[in-house]
Amino acid sequence: MPSNIDTDRFPEWRPFIDAVQQRRPDTGTWCEAWTVRDIVVHQAGNAEELARVLSAHLEGQPVGTRGFEEREGPLRAMNDTDLWAALHDRMATLNEIAEAADDVPADTDVGWTGRTMKVPWFAEHMREELVLHTWDITGDNAAAQRQLAQAWMTTHSVIAVGKPLLAKGVKQLQPGERIEARLRVSGSEDVVIDADAERTTISLAEPDGPATLETDAAARVLLLWGRRPADPSRISSSVGPETLGRVRTLLSGY
């Protein structure tokens, strides 16, 4: 089994592996309709595609991003032993490519799923996937909540992934319907969303005026990714069920 995965570069790797190993592959998760095995497939595919696209950029031969089915189909066909080895292999390759990318200017843009990401975001995106899907497996335990609550998780979710995270929810808006929302966590910037069927913006801004909903940092990341904390009392709002319901519909995740 490859061991050359830098846990300083990917500190979330070991908690994810531990969570997977503590459950059967067919165990259900908080990610709707996915088992632990489905998450392993998804993570191996993520690592493979992030490495493939970033490596091609470093070699001066950019490639487009493959869809989930194309990258995950061969992995789903593997038996559990081979899939487990593939996950480690893909992560080791991503680790190698991310290390090679350290010499590239950090503000370099690389094409990724219809947008661009900065070079350092490729490793960071895998880190976020590891955090999120560890929570999918473990639920709201203390370790998962600490990982989700890290400030960089919110920043990456908004800046690097924000619009794609809203794309599914935007499709449910009616013509002329507009949703404005402020998602607030005490002591941090608001996540500000302004969306209609034609245009979507999501950004970080200083708190201003009333919040649409207030919560903790970990729960806010879950909401941005179309998930919910197990304890609904972690979310509070005074805007009423219609407005809050529309915001929650917009936050549908991928």
UniProtKB/TrEMBL annotation:
Pfam families: MDMPI_N (PF11716)
Domain of life: Bacteria
InterPro entries listed in its UniProt record: DinB/YfiT-like, MDMPI_metal-binding
Gene Ontology molecular-function annotations: metal ion binding
Chain ranges of the Mycothiol-dependent maleylpyruvate isomerase metal-binding domain: 13-137
Name used for this protein in its record: Mycothiol-dependent maleylpyruvate isomerase metal-binding domain-containing protein
